[in-house]
Amino acid sequence: MKKFLSMALALIMTFGAFAQINTHRLESAKKENTIERNLKAPKFDASSAKKHVVSQSKAMSVEITVGTINPLSVEATFTPNSEVVEYYYLAADANEGSLFSQYVSLYQMFGMGIEDVVMGMSDNYDAPATGTQTVTLLGDFITPGAVNTIYVAAVDANDEVSIFTATYTATQLGGEGDAMVTLNIPQDSITPFSFYLEATPNDQTSRYNLVLIDHAQFTELGWNQDSVLAYFASGATPYYAPIATPVNDLDPATTYYIYAEAFNVNGVSSGLISQTVTTSTLGGSGTAAVEVTVSGVTVTTATLSFVPNDQTAYYYYMILSESNFDNAGFTSDADVQAYLEQENDRQYSQLAGTLEGLTPGTTYKVYAIAYNAEGVVGSIAPTLFTTIANGGTGLAEVAVDVDMVDGSAVISAVPNDQVSYYYFGIYYGIDELDDDYVFDYLLQNGSTYIEDIDTEITEEDFDESELWGVYAIPFNANNEEGTRVAIRFTPEGVVSLADVELSSVSLYPNPASSELTVSATSSINRIEIANLLGQMVYENATLGSNQATINVSALQQGAYLVRVFTTEGTMTRKLIVR
Q1: Among 223-227, 411-415, 526-530, where is mean pLDDT lowest?
Q2: N or C: which end of the chain has fewer CB within 10 A?
Q3: Which of 350, 385, 420 is the last residue of a domain?
Q4: Which helix H or strand E contains 337, and what residues bound it?
């Protein structure tokens, strides 16, 4: 069963030029867009975490004996009883604001408890302990000079878990002299996307703060050294031990600041310590280009790859249908280039993936606009591909049914064999809107489908609104619109049903550049043409015949909606002016 996200039409917005663009994207990892990067911030992968069953029995026990205590380590002896099959251990500062407490909060957001945190992040995660053992606990979670907790997660034969704890106070780190942190970035570690960072505190340092900041964003937001100190003072996660780590997922030819501040045992600051690094540049001074390959094209899918050449420093890409190109107000490839430069979503490496949800029998434009290391753009011409047509050339129809079952609306949509694709949407907030308005919205913003649909609106959904509507607009393989369906319903049942056959109305030529002919099988009372902002650009209310010719040469290039009022009903068609 496919569950659709409903949309309230009471909050429809208008958009300016280039703002409403229906494009397709390949799935790719996105870097976090933030001014600062906390190298010690908690990271949580919900897909790898496991929810464990807490034991209700008191049969298990683990005796914890604390041995030698150091600032960043503690020796402990664990003595489990015979009910314990295996156990996991961890030492951490559990006080509010600590790194460990942040992890606990993240786990709790996913309905997990302390037992899940300990087992998921224990020192012996890959090698559960058995029997009596004496171990030295290390890790990023211990805070020198603070009360820390030793956790043991014990597991019985039923795979149920119990937690046992013991507390101790870690010895203090550092001295009363001048605290200092030495920052080092080996020159040979710098690449376009990464570098290696070493931060080494001296023996007087009790704790230190560290952060990596993108210089461009730092400048754009008006930050200065006082801003960094204020960020540290606001509760940045402290470091205690030396670190040596690769810093990845950076942008080429980009300058980064590394800031640190160290404190001795009396809380005396070293002042701000800084280091600057610029990642290597990609590309060269030659012609930048991206090889675009399209393969495996089906009715609704296509596999694409983007491979930049060795002269490419970065590139932008966009995938959109020819109709969406017109709908966006684009009139040339240069318009697309201007939009992508403004969006500035740069790509640096190869991309590959499969696009899904494409419209059958539709031509798509694939832009890959590349720039060399000097910022000189290569070709901006797109690569074209066309999905395989579906359906037939007859009347496209979709059988839509709404059944009320136990307070829920069970909805189905079944296209006939002439349907190439169809728009389908379920909306609420339509009390003050007529069906033509909703149809217009569906054409501009809706999703297309080729398969049967089964979904439902539940009793809880009806809390959002009493009145709902389901709408469908099918098209055949010639891209000719078939019979529209609009069904409004409440928890009590269907309140209206309308089928409007639009094959009796035609526009030609479409696209048009000078004259447009509107033809219908019934008498035309009025014709209206509006742009996609809803602004009326043409109206004629004195026709009274089955055909009308309209001069559209004065209209700007782009997409329009033509509303035809006949004695049989009101019909809306999309017009492209070129």
Answers
A1: 526-530
A2: N
A3: 385
A4: helix 333-343
Distances (CA, A) of 293 to 303, 318, 347: 8, 14, 16
Are residues 414 and 398 in contact, defined by beta-carbon separation less than 8 angstroms? yes
- Cα–Cα distance, 370 to 375 (Å, whole number): 9
Q: Tell me, what DSSP letter sits at residue 361? A: T
Q: Which pTM value belongs to this model?
A: 0.57
pLDDT digits (tens, 9 = 90+) for 163-180: 999 999 999 999 999 999
Structural domain that includes position 460: 398-501
Q: Are residues 144 and 207 in the same domain?
A: no
Tell me the C-alpha to C-alpha distance, in Å, between residue 427 and each of 7, 188, 323, 409, 490. 5, 58, 24, 13, 12
Helix (H) or strand (E) holding 435: helix 435-445
How far is it, in rounded angstroms, from Cα 524 to Cα 40? 69
* Residue 30, amino acid: K
- Beta strand 53-54 with 569-577 is unpaired
Cα angle 20, 21, 23 (rounded to 5 degrees) comes to 150
Q: Are residues 64 and 161 in the same domain?
A: yes
Residue 531, domain member (yes or no): yes
Work out how many domains the chain is built from and give that number: 5
Round to whole Å and give the CA distance between 86 and 162: 11
Alpha helices, H only, 144-298? 215-220, 225-233
- Span 57-99, pLDDT tens digits: 789 999 999 999 999 999 999 999 999 999 999 999 999 888 8
